[in-house]
Specification:
Its EC number is 3.4.14.9. Lysosomal serine protease with tripeptidyl-peptidase I activity. May act as a non-specific lysosomal peptidase which generates tripeptides from the breakdown products produced by lysosomal proteinases. Requires substrates with an unsubstituted N-terminus. One of its GO terms (biological process) is proteolysis. The chain is α/β, with parallel strands linked by helices. It is built from 15 helices and 25 strands. The structure holds 2-acetamido-2-deoxy-beta-D-glucopyranose (NAG) (5 copies). One 2-acetamido-2-deoxy-beta-D-glucopyranose (NAG) binds next to α15. One 2-acetamido-2-deoxy-beta-D-glucopyranose binds next to loops.
Length: about 550
């Protein structure tokens, strides 16, 4: 008996603590298992160190983002953010002692000191993280190493780490980038206008004079698929479609690995459209950060933001995963990273996803399936619309794919309580209560056209490209134009938009009130998911931008 207790105690001591017990372990179906990785191969793991003053970070973010606060727009530099959140000496020491105890010395940090990226052999990694076992998986010509089982860390460091990256989560594929992205949708009618820069500029009331000119303005797209935009595609797109307004035809800076090979549709789309609405504004592309086999590309992009003092003001990202598949530790830490960005005055826009409310099939019944980071309270989420009459640049209705709903993890932030309550009281009929969590963060926040875009990829113009990956860079470009006008007047950037956006109560936005999005196709949910309604709704948010009016509303301090 005593021996058994002793053995159990030893197991507990050695096994340590699991940081991400709730992370769902599964190999996405398109990855093929290639076997165990040899003990001498190298892995690169990312250690997310516990930060200090996270409550204060949140408070400060509220102050600098609230137009009624006297701290509005008083953003922090990255160095100031670093002195706020960087880990305590105790945390740094505990983590270093643990790593060095395993002979791990080859690490690099970031300016905020809250991440460590370390290289070690598989053998060392498996000893450091009891329970882990690294395997190699292949998808086409891309390979990754991941653990097939949960990891734990020594109990001495458990309270000093949020999680270890590069162990469990697989990179998303093109199809899953935004879940259910199905590539070009088939046209419903033989002839169609299609969406081009001219269409967008007309619909959103941008004149030829509405282009960027401020010094130091900038915008960016970030993408995490193994795909590239091609400079020649961008140039051809601009010469074919971007007539009648001044614009740039080249990306200012590529951060990350810009490879050769075929251009990706998604990458082409993002760059071509942010540079069409945000015309003449220097544009960066963050591409494929974290190409080592054990890195998580999205996480590596977050590290990059914390390691670069000067980054663009607006970032658009078409990326999302099922909220229920991710660990709470991971999502909460990513939220801290979003708060750090917001405190610097950076605007982060995420696509709301392309499967409406989503659907998760549980044994007893179905529930909607929110997507993260779309469901994060600290980013602005963009949904999608289409023209009611596809032959006229007028009235917009819901695009049935437009992602939206309520988080099951994050509570509803104050800035949206009255808007969302009004929707819940007013909109009839609502899906059954058992399908969604009415106390959660509700999204999207706004929308733009997401249907039937023209894109040039591999030098070929392609019609019928659809998805919220299209609407997000369109909104990004428009917000960059507003930043531009603000900079010309000596005003600070918009930063984290939502507190101010919700105070507008829809001013400057075309309210989208027609149509429902996808959800669970079962007899209990009439209309599948949610339906658009007047004012805010969980399908198109507050609606789509009417540039001159929105600019006016965002200019007065
Ligand atoms: C440290 O790791 C990097 C890869 O991240 C590798 O290129 C380098 O050679 C390593 N340095 C040492 C001293 O092992
Ligand atoms: C952060 O930037 C510094 C300086 O450029 C570099 O040495 C370090 O490796 C970077 N950190 C990471 C995690 O890439
Ligand atoms: C903007 O566009 C809408 C419809 O496209 C139009 O009705 C309106 O007059 C335009 N101008 C302003 C300043 O709203
Ligand atoms: C632009 O940035 C540079 C370097 O960061 C700075 O010296 C300059 O004052 C900035 N200009 C404006 C107009 O903000
Ligand atoms: C509903 O959301 C809240 C957070 O807003 C969460 O605490 C709760 O667990 C969620 N309920 C379900 C059934 O997921």
């Amino acid at each position: 008996m005593r021996l058994l207790v002793f053995v159990l105690l030893c197991v507990w001591l050695v096994a340590g603590e699991q940081l991400e017990r709730d992370q769902v372990l599964f190999v996405p179906e398109d990855w093929v298992h290639e076997g165990r990785v040899s003990p001498h191969e190298e892995v690169q793991l990312t250690f997310a160190l516990m930060q200090q003053n996270v409550d204060r970070l949140e408070k400060l973010l509220q102050l600098v983002s609230d137009p009624d606060s006297r701290h509005y727009g008083k953003f922090f530099s990255l160095e100031e953010v670093a002195s706020l959140v960087r880990p305590s000496q105790l945390t740094e020491k505990a983590v270093w002692t643990w790593l060095q105890g395993h002979g791990i010395e080859n690490c690099s940090s970031v300016i905020t000191r809250d991440f460590l990226l370390c290289t070690m052999s598989v053998q060392v990694a498996e000893r450091l993280l009891p329970g882990s076992q690294f395997h190699r998986y292949r998808r086409g010509d891309q390979t990754v190493m991941r653990s097939s089982s949960q990891y734990s860390v020594h109990k001495d460091v458990a309270e000093h780490l949020h999680f270890v990256g590069g162990v469990l989560r697989f990179p998303l594929s093109g199809k899953e980038n935004i879940k259910a992205w199905a590539g070009p949708k088939r046209p419903t009618k033989a002839f169609h206008l299609g969406v081009t820069p001219a269409t967008l500029r007309t619909r959103y009331n941008l004149t030829a004079a509405d282009i960027g000119s401020a010094a130091n303005n900038s915008q960016a797209v970030a993408q995490f698929l193994e795909q590239y935009y091609h400079p020649a595609d961008l140039a051809e797109f601009m010469s074919l479609f971007a007539r009648g307004f001044k614009h740039l035809t080249e990306v200012e800076r590529v951060v990350g690995k810009q490879g050769g090979g075929k251009a990706g549709l998604e990458a082409s789309l993002d760059v071509e459209y942010i540079m069409s609405t945000g015309a003449n504004i220097p544009t960066w592309v963050f591409t494929n950060p974290g190409r080592h086999e054990t890195q998580e590309p999205f996480l590596q992009w977050m590290l990059l933001l914390s390691n670069m003092s000067a980054v663009p003001w607006v970032h658009t990202i078409s990326y999302g995963d099922d909220e229920d598949s991710l660990s709470a530790a991971y999502m909460n830490r990513i939220n801290n990273e979003f708060m750090k960005a917001g405190l610097r005055g950076i605007t982060l826009l995420f696509a709301s996803g392309d499967s409406g409310a989503g659907c998760r099939h549980l044994t007893k019944e179905n529930v909607f399936r929110p997507s993260f980071p779309a469901s994060s309270p600290y980013v602005t989420t963009v949904g999608g619309t289409s023209f009611k009459n596809p032959f006229k640049v007028t009235y917009e209705v819901t695009d049935y794919i437009s992602g939206g709903g309520f988080s099951n993890v994050f509570t509803m932030p104050d800035y949206q309580v009255s808007a969302v309550s009004a929707f819940l009281k007013g909109a009839q009929p609502l899906p059954p209560e058992s399908y969604f969590n009415r106390t959660g963060r509700a999204y999207p926040d706004m929308a733009a056209l997401s249907d039937n875009y023209w894109v040039v990829t591999n030098l070929v113009p392609i019609p019928w490209v659809s998805g919220t990956s299209a609407s997000t860079p369109v909104v990004g470009g428009i917000l960059s134009l507003i930043n531009d006008q603000r900079f010309l007047k000596g005003l600070p950037a918009l930063g984290f938009l939502n507190p101010r956006l919700y105070k507008l109560k829809g001013a400057g936005l075309f309210d989208v009130t027609e149509g429902c999005h996808l959800g669970c196709l079962d007899e209990k949910v009439e209309g599948n998911g949610f339906c658009a309604a007047s004012s805010w709704d969980p399908v198109t948010g507050w609606g789509t931008p009417n540039y001159p009016v929105l600019l006016d509303a965002f200019m007065d301090d």
